[in-house]
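QUALITY CONTROL LOG
STEP: pairwise intake check
CHECKER ROLE: data steward
CRITERIA: each record must contain a sequence immediately followed by its C-alpha cells, with no blank fields

ENTRY 1 OF 2
RESULT FIELD BELOW
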Amino acid sequence: MLSVLVPLLRRDDELQILTGTLSGTYQSTGEGKFFFTMMAAFAELERDMIRERTLAGLATARADGRVGGRPTVISPDTLAAAQARRLRGETPTQIAKALGVSRATIYRHLNC
C-alpha cells in the first residue's frame, strides 16, 4: 500500500473522502501526509493479519484431515476401470465417454 502512496505524495495529490466520519479533503503535506501514511499502514496491517489467519486456518484444516477444493469424480473402482481400458488401447476420449467423466479427468488421473 505504501508503494502506491509514495508517488501520490510526491505529486502533491490530495485525497477526498466523500462519506463517513472521516469525510473531507486531505492534502499531501503536513497532517494530510500523516493521515495518508497511517491509513496505508493500517490497510497493510489488516491485509497481513487476514493472510496470517487464512494460512493458520488452512493448516488447521489440513491437520484435521480436511482438504480444500472440489471432490474428485473418480472413485477407486472408476480409476481401475479407466486403467484397464487404457491398457486395452482405448483412447482417453473413448474412456471418458464410456465412464461419464471429462477427458481432462482421464488425462489427469492416467497421466496420458
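ENTRY 2 OF 2
RESULT FIELD BELOW
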Amino acid sequence: MTYYVGHETVTARDDAGALPRWVEALFAFMQRNASHPTDYFRWPPDQVVEISRQVAI
C-alpha cells in the first residue's frame, strides 16, 4: 500500500497583500508544532509519497 501526503512550505510575502508579522509568527509556530501525518497515523516511512508545494502568505 502507498500513502500520499501533501506538504506545504510557507514563505513570507513582501508585497501589500502580506499578512501582519504577528499573524505570520503565530502561523509559523502552529505549523512547526503540528505533528506529521506519518507520525500521527503511524504509517511506515518507506510507503509514503510526499507531494509538496510552496505557498506565500
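INTAKE CHECK: passed for both entries
DESCRIPTIVE NOTE, ENTRY 2: The radius of gyration is 14 Å.
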